[in-house]
């Protein structure tokens, strides 16, 4: 009887739980000099290829993808949205449950002005550290509240909280319909008690810009809000254009560039 029970459990259990490894990784990339495209660990490339995740675009084209992590509102997102609107630049905002509950008008404005709103989980946990059911609930709760607030039914992109992931978390979130979006450009901008001014932010961002860069910027940073107009202006002078993640995914689906 025990054998029969175990066979039944094996048959009905989700395949990702049985097959996917849950070893936890922290996202990182290998910096390059002179604004050259970056790469990452071979293991990470393997996992992203297996689960359709992304961290960089076509490195043959001077396109940039602005993404903001919005765990909470610190008073600067309105300024960021003003700059994006003025310069007609698209972006993706990855939001948490806390953000949905405390800044609903800003979320509505993101949608109204044509930006992508992505999932950053409800409570911002390490996704490898939670079970399948809890992980599913973390993502579903954000999507349901977002749809209730905006009427938009689709939420296609996920930024794993803390940059922590595993084969299991990538596999399960992909089965739930998400593209995991990591990044190829970032700097230490999230510490609100260690802001160094807009010029510092500008310099940090510009020395890391490269073709195909998926840019991780935190909207809680006063430095970023101050630097953003100058970043956009200078990047355009250097021949870059800003595009949305939807455009990046369309290019990939049309086989215009291979997976990294």
Automatic annotation (TrEMBL):
Gene Ontology BP terms: carbohydrate metabolic process
Signal sequence extent: 1-19
InterPro entries assigned: Glyco_hydro/deAcase_b/a-brl (IPR011330), NODB_dom (IPR002509), Polysacc_deacetylase_ArnD (IPR050248), Spore_PdaA (IPR014235)
Cellular component annotations (GO), alphabetically ordered: membrane
GO molecular function: hydrolase activity, acting on carbon-nitrogen (but not peptide) bonds
Top-level taxon of the source organism: Bacteria
Name of this protein: Polysaccharide deacetylase
Originating species: Alkalihalobacillus trypoxylicola
Lineage: Bacteria, Bacillati, Bacillota, Bacilli, Bacillales
